[in-house]
Amino acid sequence: MQPERRRAAILEAAVAEISERGFARTTSRHVAARAGVTHGLLHHYFPDHDSLLAAAFEKVALEEIDEANEALASDRDPLAQLREITEPYGPGGGEEAYRFWLEAWAEAYHSPTLQETSRRLSVAWHELVVGVIERGNAAGVFRCEHPSETAWMVVALSDAYALQCQIGSGLAPYEMNHVLWRLTERELGLAAGALARPTPAGAAARND
Amino acid sequence: MQPERRRAAILEAAVAEISERGFARTTSRHVAARAGVTHGLLHHYFPDHDSLLAAAFEKVALEEIDEANEALASDRDPLAQLREITEPYGPGGGEEAYRFWLEAWAEAYHSPTLQETSRRLSVAWHELVVGVIERGNAAGVFRCEHPSETAWMVVALSDAYALQCQIGSGLAPYEMNHVLWRLTERELGLAAGALARPTPAGAAARND
DNA sequence: TACGGTATTGGCCGATCGCCCAATACACAA
DNA sequence: TTGTGTATTGGGCGATCGGCCAATACCGTA
User: Choosing among A144, A167, A183, which should be mutated to test the B contact, i.e. which has the most B CBs within 10 A?
Assistant: First the structure.
């Protein structure tokens, strides 16, 4: 197999192992077995364990940003863009992905590399939301006074939403979704329910 | 040493180890060494590794609830109570404590016991905030339409606040604190800045 | 064809893990 | 005092870890 594809296969296996077992319990031998190679070969591509974990984390982080940008580029409507951003956090969406991030945050304490990547990704994610809000402001769809603060609120509530879904607290998912949408609508100067309904084909949701 | 005190000492050492190294990397031998006992004795008190981790987690969870109730009981003013709840999340507050919770959430995926305890604690914490809000409503201090939703928002933003402080994103702590207070004030029908300042008619500026 | 570098294999090493267990120290009741 | 149960010690076992290395397979090039 070509070295590039082999390396990618190993990284893919590493991400899967990390999602299932966590960073600390991910062993190079298990990753190698899942990738269908021997542990010796894995050591050939990733000389030490930390480089494997760091590369896997970097891969997921880059994919996350790419997917977000792709979702934003496919739809130019700020309202739809905001929905694209907040929706994947819910149940059935990116559960495995969020398990990965929770592991990453916990592991960031022990690894300066992971901490730095976490930081970069957090900033990038925040700026992404800020961009959507500011474009919505410019287009006259939003009336948001503090884009940076509101963006942080959206990210924070989305994170907390995903977290509550994961640990399965007594709070019903629909209730979390409701408060997330309600607060976002108010922060953006939208009419109540503007985010809840996926803009019925035409321009029917312009009743404010 | 009395068995009860010995067991408590072991648990205390376990909590410290978990906070530093995480659940997955916490070994019974290290816990025993920190507690000043042999690994054989630790096995005498906690027959298997999971029981040690579960007991340590349970200890912290109970202490968390107790401390919150104590803080709430020491001050009957709903506004001060709310400040007591949201303040420890900030920098300089419960950094080590939050590291523990992050580890716990990540580990909950792999342990039904930890997941159940996480769930119970999350519900208890939410109900605690709901109680403060409802008492504030009854006292005429708050005008909150959706206590449950608002309580979840407070908890979610506090969690996200602590998380951002931990990973050290580009968002300044004061900015996070500002949006947390601003949204809470609006949800509770308070005047702007009501939460930021200790007490308007206050004689004691015991806050930092 | 011969050659050199890379991909790949599988065994090995020392360290460490959770767990087990025989032996010993100790405290308190009979 | 004797005896009994618990507290405590420390060594050992099998498994597994990350990392190292000699040997082999493969493949493009001179």
Answer: A167
Q: Which residue has the tokens 């809470």?
A: B184
Q: What is the pLDDT of residues B134-158, one digit of tens each?
A: 999 999 999 999 999 899 888 888 8
pLDDT in tens, A116-172: 888 888 888 889 999 999 999 999 999 999 999 899 888 888 888 788 777 776 667
Q: Is A178 on the interface with B (CB under 8 A)?
A: yes
Across the interface, whether the CB atoms of B119 and A168 are under 8 A apart is answered yes
Reported confidence tier of residue A23, pLDDT bands at 50, 70, 90:
very high
Q: What is the dihedral of CA B57, A23, B109, A9, to 10 degrees?
A: -170
Q: What is the spatial distance between Cα A108 and Cα A118, in angstroms, rounded to a whole number?
A: 7
Nucleotide nearest to B43 (CA to C1'): C19
What is the rounded CA–CA span in Å between residue A21 and residue A17? 6
- Model confidence pLDDT, tens digit, residues A167-201: 776 667 777 788 888 999 999 999 988 877 654 54
Q: Which of A49-63, A98-112, B5-19, B165-179 has the lowest mean pLDDT?
A: B165-179
B41 close to A (CB below 8 A): no
Contact A154, A184 (CB under 8 A): yes
Provide the token pair at B88: 């420890």
Nearest alpha carbon to residue B26 among B78, B97, B103 = B103
pLDDT of the residue at A91 = 59
Residue B128 makes CB contacts below 8 A (sequence gap 6+) with: B65, B68, B69, B72, B85
